[in-house]
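User: Can you predict the 3D structure for this chain?
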Amino acid sequence: MHRYSEETRRRVLEAAEKLGYRPNRAAQMIRRGKSRLIGVVHFGTSTHQARQMAHYLPQAIQRNDYQPFVVDLSWQGDSYQTALERLIEMRVEGVIIAGLVNSFTEKDLQLLQHCGIPTVLLATSTTLNVPAVFSGTRLAFAQMVTHFFEEGHRNLTLLVNDYQYPSTLNRIAGFRDGLERHCADGLKGEIVTLPADKDPFVAGLPAYHYMKERLAGKAPLPDGILCSNDRWAQGVFTAALEAGLQIPGDLALSGCDNDPFGALAPYHLTTTTANIGDESEKAVEVLMELIAGRPLPQQHHVFEHQLIVRESSRRARSPALAERPPGRAGFSLLELLITLAAVAILVGLLFPAALRTVEAGNQAKCLSHLRQWGVAIAHYAADHNALLPPAQMPIDPANPSSRMVGWDERIAPFVPLDYQQTMKSPDLGPRRRSILVCPAEREVLARGDYTYAQNIDLNYRLLGEKALVRLTGLTNPGSYVILSDSYRSLTLSTATRAKLETSIMPQRRHRGIPNFLYADGHAAPFTEPLVGYNEVTAANRSFYHNLWYARGLPPHLR
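Assistant: Here is the predicted structure, written as structure tokens:
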């Protein structure tokens, strides 16, 4: 039963909220004689394991109605003495040494025991007579060796640091257990000791430099390398990548501690993982027992690492190739012939489809060229009283003997390119990429050539301006052809000029179909049957008459 009524409690709480009052922990500690604080000593969050403990441990402490008081050893000059003095000053009721406890000595433990503060070690084994909750790596590393063996790797290397800590010794013991299990089947291995990381924020350099030196010395590589942690595996991976090696393929690789980067490309790193959440929960549970003064059934609690298999340790070659005799390498003749036949079939299936796609793209680009010509012709007509450009006409209409100028040069000012430079340049590249040339034309053009021709029957009957056709005079401009897929050359020889009548006929470039530009400005493929010029007879002569001639012109222009 509460000492005060609910109304009194409500009024007190409202006043406290209004005044911004907060409970004074020091006063509470004096009154109760207990701080309700659990001290946590850790060494920063530079490793994935440390970050996990920083997440799970405070939650486990708070679930037991305590608050964590955290001391980061990296802020105390790496001195346990300084860190522990702070915890004692805060009257913590228990201490958890989390993470790097290898430098935690008997002297440090005696200091806490002298003050009557129960202590638990978390995340690593110890030789001290103190309760400890830690991860076991021996079984996981033995399983790792077995996994490498089952993948077909027969020569392994273990990279460990030179600290004689229990965590390092457990990895070595697990590696040896795996070798002993499979040595009768030809498995070999070596243990390489390297200097430990000096900078926790630039981890992996010892393994990186080891791999660089081994590659530079041209020494044979093992089938697989097992690293003490994922950061060392990252160092080996980087050195191998710089040397052009593939993992897996040229080398299998694994780490330990399941750092998040290992799950991502390009690493896909095989590793082991600890259950830090359960370990943290167990450490707090043990500490609560000690604070309550109850005896512990056991001092040490081991949580075994779990093996996580990813692509970095897989066998790159197929089992069929792996079982070949050592003297055989590469493909057999039968395998090579089967591969070539499969490639030939695929090419046969894909090439026609690819060719049709290219042809369709060329046709679409050609239609775009014709539309741009149509825009230029429309601008010319707008500046010349609706007249279409003549096929040929003296540059000076008043002087019939002056230089003849074709339709193309007439509309050059309205074309979106440097017409004269493009036409006269010996470099065919710019012209091939311009609107002067149909992209489906595969023949090399001489200087001055382009691949579109005007309907000279529409605008070449007389040389005088009075004979020219006006756009406004066409009753149905959508039925009159202005330009067509064809040829035009300014540099034809006499022998070639005799064939001009054939060359200026529509050319069926696009899978047997020519593209036409009509007087209303639209361009479209001409899909009706097309009679070749050399096939014109008296019976079908009206075909070209109806196609090219300006039907519906005023009588004086017919």
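DSSP finds 19 helices and 18 strands in the chain. Residues 317-329, 461-465, 489-503, 531-558 have pLDDT under 50 and may be disordered.
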